[in-house]
Amino acid sequence: MGDYADIRTGRHCAFVLHAHLVFVTKYRHPVFGDHHLSRMEEIMRDVCADFETELREFNGEANHVHLLVNFPPKVALSKLVNSLKGVSSRRLRQEFPDLVRHYWRANKLWAGSYFAGSVGGAPISVLRQYIEQQNRPV
User: Fold this and answer.
1) Which of 51, 87, 117, 129 has the smallest number of Cβ neighbours within 10 A?
2) What pLDDT digit, counting tens, does each position of 93-138 carry?
């Protein structure tokens, strides 16, 4: 991360924004096996694509998942998170009937809270490259 190749551009900006997200199952119950996690990664990749966000890394264990996302400034992380949790919960319930017993009160798979942390930051070399590009005549 932090490399020139990570710089993405929008109509009016250049950016490198990464967030580390962690979702925990309700009551931290051990819910997922490898086949659940594999399918969840596919589902979450699709949701990220809908938000023009790249799922850079994904891993998880029986009671939580970690995501590293590269997102544009127009994306509100809270909306991305709500969609990731909601869509994955709904699809997993439909595709894996064995998981239904883990859906606690009001059909909740995930705990209500989540962790979001900023990751990295643009090194001076990346900022310098951006500034130099702004000074070039079009």
Assistant:
1) 117
2) 999 988 887 776 667 889 999 999 888 766 667 666 766 666 555 5
For domain 4-131, give the CATH number.
Answer: 3.30.70.1290
- C-beta of residue 20 within 8 angstroms of C-beta of residue 52: no
Identify residue 90 by its one-letter amino acid code: R
Please say whether the beta carbons of 17 and 71 come within 8 A: yes
Residue in 89, 123, 133 with CA at minimum distance from that of residue 109? 89
Euclidean distance between the first and final Cα of the chain, in Å?
29
How far apart are the C-alpha atoms of 11 and 132, rounded to whole Å? 18
At 127, the amino acid letter reads L
What torsion do the CA atoms of 103, 108, 109, 115 make, to the nearest 10 degrees?
Answer: -160
> Apex CA 78: angle with CA 106 and CA 63, to 5°?
55
Give the integer Cα–Cα distance in Å for 10 and 72: 8
Q: Residue holding tokens 């962790």?
A: 115
